[in-house]
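Reproducibility note. Readers wishing to regenerate the assembly model reported in the main text can use the exact inputs given here. Chain order matters: entities are listed in the order in which they were concatenated for prediction.
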Amino acid sequence: MVPPVSDDLSQTAPVQQRVAALYSAALDGVFRYLLALGLDAGRAQEVTQDAFLRLYVALRDGAAIEDAKAWVYRVARNAGIDSLDRNGRESQYSAAIANTIASFAKNPEQELIEKEWLEGFQDAIENLSPQQRACLELRAQGLQYWQIAEVLQVRTSTVGEFLRRGIKQMKRWNECRK
Amino acid sequence: MPEIEHPTEELLSALFEEQLPAAEVEHLLAHLDSCRICEQRVGLIEPAFARYQRCRELVAPQLPKPPQAWGDIVAAMQKAERARRTVPLPGRKRGILRPSWIGALAAAILVGAILFWPQSSSELRAETLLLKARSASPRRSPNSRLTVRTPRSTFLRPAVLSGTTPQIQEMDAIRVRFAAAHYDWSDPLSAGAYANWRAKIRHHTVEVSEDHGQSTIRTTGDEGGIAEASLTLDATNLSPVNARFVFSPQDWVEIVAAPDAPAELGPAASAPGDSVVTQPESTVERSVAERELMTRLAIDRLGSGAGEPIDVDVEPDGRIVVTPYRLGELRESQLRASLQGVERVTVRSPEAAERQEESPASLAGADPAIDASNSIASRAHLLSQLAERFPPETEAELSPSSRKDLREMRVRHARALEGDIGTLARVLAQSRPLRLSVSGVPDGGSVPKALLESAVAVNRTVASLYAEKAGEGSSAWQQLGEELARLRFLAHQYSQEVQR
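Running the prediction on these inputs yields the following structure tokens for the assembly.
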């Protein structure tokens, strides 16, 4: 069935402005989150752009969206997971960390402490569950706890539990290194 | 205004240290979402967040960048909106446009919206490319020709057939198959024919890839006879370069743009391309490298490329000998069938003494770590063989479609290799914490060779650890961590290289 269409183009202008504002503010974050999920850059870009266009269509058609940012992340996450290979892929972070460590080796003047941090981070991130990694990444991007719960479609207390376990895991690996 | 009750220091510490009741966690997180003071207190109590943030910043320059400029969202929204407005509403009068006009107009405007949003999906990218290619395609000269290759023969034909083109038996058989698949055989190497065929396939998947200044659209369908059709366009002028149609693994047709017919042999204006030139197989025999690649691809398609011991030897006279050491009867017959389209290839049955019989114990996989490690070694071996057999100078002599096939095989196994390494790391981590740190960056040289050496070293260490049941404190674990980290680095480096 064809959805109802408003007769005046200007009626959709506020929705477009709202989506455009969010697009410029959250574009990089969504893209980076998809990289952390394991999508390659090309697919991450496609999924990111699609998510914002879908937001526009949903808002235009009158969908009740409590928080547009969390909604976009959620749609992007679901589409991203669908497009991952059946076996899943490693987060793009893993490769980026390896490359960063390699670049340290070429620049010995880099601070040792940063290299050590990064090695700990590399160990830790390898062993985080996808949910733990998602919670840490989204929190680092500034999403509130309830927004993370919206994205992952879980309760806020579950987000707290994912974070607690993720932090514990990171500490454990840091201690192993000492 | 009611005074805010902030949680105690102990409670905030406990939030990420202990397992508190869910209701309490909900309450605390809700408070943190609304209280910047307490959020800052958490940052001081629990440094893990700040550390994670710092590490993110450090690795940010190494993260992949978007391959294209970001699309203009406002333009995309407006175009999509206009396209939607052209669709008539049920039960409402929307002017006096005739239905046939409305459909065409809506489609045209939707295509316009797609052009403003070229990266929204592979389907849209394919549609966009085909649309641009159709409008950019120049009129063909009457002397334009195509080379048509099948597993059995190769011949030349006019690019566009006319009613007066004489029919030959070989071409007629292909024409019938294309007609059954609803593909326009009169002008097969054209964006229009390809797009029209796609439009008739209800259920299909599509991939668009860019490589060496060419864009390839690969469509797979489950109806109409053509299982897969690829069209490669020159990225500069969007003219079709070649097309490949797969009816079944042994039954395919490849069409490549050929040099124009000499003017003196060219047709008169009334009969373009009347000279269909057939070439017997022997005069256009594929190179040894081409046939070897076809052989390896056929083996790879069986799923045996990286897991089963199958030797591929090229004899001095150009004959290719394939020796499967451990295939069951059924798979060996599948292998023979899949190699039927390759000239001068022989499948040799190994002597009884050479044959490695399948045994339940060898196939069951005694341990997931050993399985993953074996798989890594096999893939690294395959990639090293591909590098050795198809160095750049050999690769350059392959046909465009063979180069594409070779690249896809490399990419497929490189990705699978990275996945296997991740699996091995996870499996090992279940036994005991394993520190993966790169102790030294491998210097230049052949990456596939270094990859194979590294994979063999990991495989050896894993086998020895599991055979000796090495203790918790064994230095072999540390060594394994370093070897695995190096292998992961090399695999990633290789994967980046082949996908470039």
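We highlight two features of this model. The radius of gyration of chain A is 19 Å. The helical segments of chain A are 13-37, 41-60, 68-83, 92-106, 112-126, 130-140, 145-152, 156-177.
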